[in-house]
Amino acid sequence: MKTKLKRIWTYKDFLDGRLKEWEEIVDGKRIRKMPAYKRHARLLNDIGFKLNLELGNKFKILLGEVSIKIDEFNIRAADIVLMEKEKYIDDFEAIKEPPNLVIEIEDGKKPIRYINKKIDDYLKFGIRRQIWIFLDKEEIWDIDNLGNKKILSFDDEIDIFGVKLKIRNLV
To answer: Looking at the domain assignment, is residue 29 inside a domain?
Structure first.
């Protein structure tokens, strides 16, 4: 009887274009991501526009499933990434240095274990700050580099490097 070996997916597969659109690599496995709703896309654009307007001289603001290489077997896709301009390299690869901030916008369809694993991957990689916006619960998680989580509502103001955002005003 033949044993079927499972394929281990790596960063090389990502670079070679072997992943399908809307996929991440998690623990060597391809994980399908759902396409975003209009509300998600609009909020992504509005936050990105405001941040670029006010912080574009200091940071590169990247939008839309930005690939982050956690390690050889974990490639994550972030909604919004802020990275100091001096550290940013413009190429056809994933980000390989921890950015200053990652913002994720969630609609409530992903299981909590997926979200917690992604948070842990970002912490392991050394991302300094994560902001998770949950559209279904109207809740924000502001997570520092040690994993300390502050839970906010859409009515609370978030300070992103001096830029004040109130999500309620953007949704």
So the answer is: no
Locus of tokens 């006010």: 54
H/E element, 55: helix 38-55
Q: What is the CATH number of the domain that holds 115?
A: 3.90.1570.10
Is residue 19 a part of any domain in this protein?
Answer: no
CA distance 11 to 72: 5
Query: Helix, strand or coil for residue 140?
Result: strand
Task: In whole angstroms, give the CA distance from residue 70 to residue 86.
Answer: 20
First CA to last CA distance, the chain:
56
Contacts of 2 (CB under 8 A, 6+ apart): none
Cβ neighbours for 31, distance < 8 A, ≥ 6 positions apart: 23, 24, 25, 114
Asked if the structure places residue 1 within a domain, the reply is: no
Question: What is the residue whose two structure tokens read 């502050």?
Answer: 150
72-104 pLDDT, tens digit each: 999 999 999 999 999 988 888 889 999 999 999
Taking alpha carbons only, the member of 78, 142, 130 closest to residue 100 is 130
The pTM of the whole model exceeds 0.90: no
Q: Which of 119, 102, 101 is nearest to 110 (CA)?
A: 119
Q: Which two tokens stand for residue 58?
A: 């200091």
161: Cα separation from own chain's centroid: 18
